[in-house]
Write a structure and sequence with these properties.
- The protein is mainly α.
- The protein has a single domain, classed as Rhopdopsin 7-helix transmembrane proteins (Up-down Bundle), CATH 1.20.1070.
- α4 packs antiparallel against α6, α5 runs antiparallel to α6 and α5 packs antiparallel against α8.
- The protein is globular.
- The N and C termini lie far apart (about 50 Å).
- Pfam families: DUF7702.
- Keywords: Membrane, Transmembrane, Transmembrane helix.
Length: about 325
């Protein structure tokens, strides 16, 4: 009973404090009459929602440890991205003549928020996979590949956003469009690899420790919503864009634009899908007990590193057994 009180009490305090903040923001909105459009009010709601998520993720990092649950670090980063993006969006809408840098800031943050969410999923999968595969070095190399892939996708997306904000000609827009297309396509490819990796863990689920199986179940529950978020990013990346301050050509993908598209699609496919994924991971972090089970795998992995000779990356583990997707990725490095 005491452990549940220890876990739930700080979270209750956080949400109570932020409910008071929410009341203050409502007062500010309706009595000071902030001039916001629908997306502005969505940003206001995200500001309120992600503040307790930020504090909860800090608590979970402290509770589980950085080395054991690296995914919570990226939830913390995602919360910062969403809070800063919401603030800049609200400030831009309140300004009669918002600067290009302000608009550029919240537009880029809107697009790059997917990267820490994907990295968080990879972090949780890293925890699930400890001790599952027979060559920890290949497993670690595979995870490093996935992390580098996610970082590359984010960097390319940022470059596309910066180029678009500073575009002065159609050639500049075309260049930015190329970066946007490459970035969102890489995110889709990364999701496919994450999904296949999580299937590999289900194939080897008997080797996964019981508490980590709960984490794997949570990841499986979150992946459909993460897929919706990735699909929206893909559709948004291919929506028409133009030189800043001009109206882009309209087509069937215009409603998925992250800046001036349909707020209904944005709310459902981007905001709601992302929040459900994040909340699923937070519930997972609260529900999982902090036990010695996580530490018991470490000596096993260390012994494998010492005892397992270096094998051909194409031969697999003992007896030439393949390592699944991790071994395949590592063999290509």
């Amino acid at each position: 009973m005491l452990k549940y009180v220890t876990v739930l009490f700080p979270i209750t305090v956080v949400f109570t404090a932020n409910f008071s903040l929410f009341q203050s923001l409502l007062f500010w909105t309706f009595f000071v009459k902030m001039a916001l459009d629908v997306r502005g009010y969505i940003s206001l709601a995200l500001l309120v929602i992600y503040m307790p998520i930020l504090l909860t993720s800090v608590f979970l990092v402290w509770r589980h440890g950085i080395q054991k649950q690296t995914g919570f670090i990226f939830l913390f980063v995602l919360s910062l991205v969403r809070i800063i993006g919401s603030v800049t969006h609200i400030v831009a809408e309140q300004s009669s003549n918002p600067s290009t840098g302000l608009i550029e800031c919240y537009s880029i943050l809107e697009n790059v928020g997917l990267s820490p969410l994907m990295m968080a999923t990879l972090g949780f999968l890293t925890t699930v996979g400890r001790g599952v595969f027979e060559d920890p070095m290949q497993a670690r190399a595979g995870m490093q590949f996935f992390t580098a892939f996610a970082s590359t996708s984010m960097i390319i997306t940022v470059i596309g956003g910066v180029d678009l904000a500073s575009a002065t000609s159609q050639s500049d827009v075309n260049k930015a469009t190329t970066f946007r297309h490459v970035g969102c396509t890489l995110f889709l490819a990364l999701f496919i690899m994450i999904f296949l990796l999580h299937l590999c863990f289900w194939v080897e689920v008997k080797k996964v420790m019981p508490q980590r199986r709960k984490m794997l179940i949570g990841i499986s529950a979150a992946l459909p919503f993460l897929l919706v978020r990735v699909v929206y990013s893909m559709l948004s990346g291919y929506s028409p864009i133009s030189i800043p301050s001009t109206t882009p050509v309209q087509n069937s993908l215009s409603k998925f634009s992250s800046t001036n598209g349909s707020w209904q699609w944005y709310l459902v496919m981007s905001v709601a899908a992302e929040l459900i994924t994040v909340i699923t991971y937070l519930i997972l972090g609260v529900a999982l007990p902090v036990s010695q089970e996580y530490d018991e795998a470490e000596p096993y992995e260390h012994d494998l590193e010492e005892a397992t000779p270096m094998k051909s990356s194409r031969s697999g583990g003992r007896g030439g057994r393949p390592f699944g997707l991790i071994g395949l990725i590592a063999s290509l490095l």
